Amino acid sequence: MSSKIYLLSGLILCVVSSSVSAEVKITPISLHSKNQHYFQWRGKPTILVTSGEHYGALLNQDFDYVKYFDELQSHGLNHTRVFAGTYRENNSAFGITENVLAPEPGRYLSPWARSSEPGYAAGGHKFDLKRWDPAWFTRVKNLLQQASDRGIVVELTLFCPMYNDQLWEICPMNAGNNVNGIGAVPREEAFTLKHKELLDIQVATTRKIVQELKEFDNLYYEVCNEPYFGGVSMEWQHRIVDEIVDAEKDFPQRHLISMNIANGRSKVENPHPSVSIFNFHYCVPPDTVAMNYGLNKVIGENETGFRGSADVLYRTEAWDFLLAGGALYNNLDYSFTVKHPAGTFRDYKSPGGGSIELRQQLGILKQFLDSFDFVRMQPNASFVHSVEPQLTTYTLAEANKVYASYFHVPLPTKPKNLQSILKEDIEALATIDLPAGNWKAEWLDTKTGKISKRDLLQHAGGKREVKSPKFSNDIALRLTRQD
C-alpha cells in the first residue's frame, strides 16, 4: 500500500492510493478453526438454519428476493439456497404450486446471453453459450449484497441434473436451445467427461462465476444438486471442484465448496480434499451425521420436504439433525412464491411444507443453539439412558459442563395418519447420565421459545431422573453446571 501527502490551505491530507481496495482481504464463511464440524463467519461460530424458497430467487426475474430476505431475517434465519440458472423447471415439475424454478416465458435468466435467433423451447430466443448475460451478473451480485446486508449466507448451486426428458428439452445446454450446436447428447451424459464441447462450457461458466463473485463473504459453492440422479459422474464433479480451486488460487481468501452426497444417508468414501461441506437431503432419521462425523467437516441437510405440510415434521427434523451434530438445515418452504415473496402462501398443494409459524420455530431452534458455545460440543448418544413414554431424543454436550437434549414423539418419514401419532400433555421421565455437581435444568417450549420449567439439581454423579413439564409433541432441555 502506498500514499501521498499534500499540503492544502494549511491542512495535511493523506491520500491513499487505489491499490488499497485490491489489498483488502475478505474472509468468506469458513470452517471453524477449533471445530470443523461448524462454520465461522464474521468472527463468530455459525450454524446455518433456514426455511427457504424453491431455489429460483436468482433465475426467476419476477421473484422479489429483497422481501424474501427480509422475512428470513425477521426470524433470525441466516441461510438460503439458490440455483445458478443453468437448470430450470416447468410448471408441471414435481407437483409444486407456483414453482419459483418455473419462470414465466421471457422471465428466465441464466449466465448465458440470449441470441437473436428465436426457438428456445420455453419461449423466446435461443441462448449463446459463449456469451455472458450482463443482467445475470448484475442480479446475482445484487442478490448476494442484499443477503449480506441481512446476515444471510448464500449457497450457490452451480448445476442440477435433468430428472426427465421434459426438463432436458428446456435446458440451454441442450443443442436445440442454443445457437452453438453444443449439447447434442443424451441427458444422462450432460454431466460427464464424455463430451468436450459441453464440458468446456460448464468449466468456463464455473470459472466466470467464481471470478465475478470473489468479493462476497456470504457465499459458498455447491457443485451439483442431487448428482445421484441423471447420470452425473463423480469424475465430472471432481473436475468442477478442481476448476473452482484453480480459479481461486490467487485470491487472498477462498470460498468453501459443497458436494451433495445422497438422499437419506450414505457413507462418504474417498472425499475430494477441497470439499468442506457434505450435504444430504431428506435425513429422517439423521444417522448420516454419525456415519460421516469422522470426516471432521460440516455435515448439512440442505433440502428436505416431501413429507406433507405439517410444521411438526420439519421442526422435529431440524432439531434432530442439528443436535445429532449437523451444522446446516434448510427446509424447502413452499409458502414462498413469486406472488408471495414474504412466504404468506397458505393454500399450496405442493408435496412439502413451510409457513410463518415454522420459520418462527426454526428461529427458536437457532437461538437455542446460539446460546451455547457449540464449537466445544459434540453428539452424545449415551447421555439420555432411557425415557418414558418412548420418545426420540438427541443430545449435544460439552462433557461435564453443559448438555442440550431434545425429545419428541417418534415420527415415521411420511406418516399416513399424523394426527394419530401426535400427543398432548406429555410428561417425560428421562434417566440421564449426569456427572456430579450442581446443575440448572431448563425446559424449553420449542413452539414459543419460553422456558416452561426450571430446576436446580444437586447430584452425586451417575444416573439421575429428570421430569419434564407437560408438553405437546416435543420439548428441549438445557442442563448447565452451576459450580
Produce a short descriptive summary.
The chain is an alpha/beta fold and 483 residues long.
3D structure, described in words:
21% of the residues lie in helices and 29% in strands. With 483 residues, the chain is of the alpha/beta class. The protein folds into 2 domains: 29-376, Alpha-Beta Barrel (TIM Barrel); 380-481, Immunoglobulin-like. The protein has an 8-stranded parallel β-sheet. It has a 6-stranded antiparallel β-sheet with strand order 16-18-19-24-21-22, covered by helices on one side. Helix 8 runs parallel beside helix 9 (356-370). The termini are far apart. Residues 1-24 have low confidence and may be disordered.
Relevant terms:
single chain, 483 residues, alpha/beta, 8-stranded parallel sheet, disordered N terminus
- CATH level-two architecture of the largest domain: Alpha-Beta Barrel
The radius of gyration is: 24 Å
Characterize the main sheet: 8 strands, parallel
Distance between the termini: 51 Å
Query: Could you state the CATH homologous superfamily of the largest domain?
Result: Glycosidases
- Neighbour order of strands in the largest sheet: 6-15-14-13-12-11-10-7
Instruction: Give the tally of structural domains.
Output: 2
The percent of residues in helical segments reads: 10-25%
The CATH topology assignment of the largest domain is: TIM Barrel
Mean pLDDT: 94
Structural class: alpha/beta
What is the global morphology?
elongated
Unreliable parts:
1-24
Can you tell me the CATH class of the largest domain?
Alpha Beta
Query: How many separate helices?
Result: 9
Residues in β-strands, percent: 25-35%
Strand tally:
24
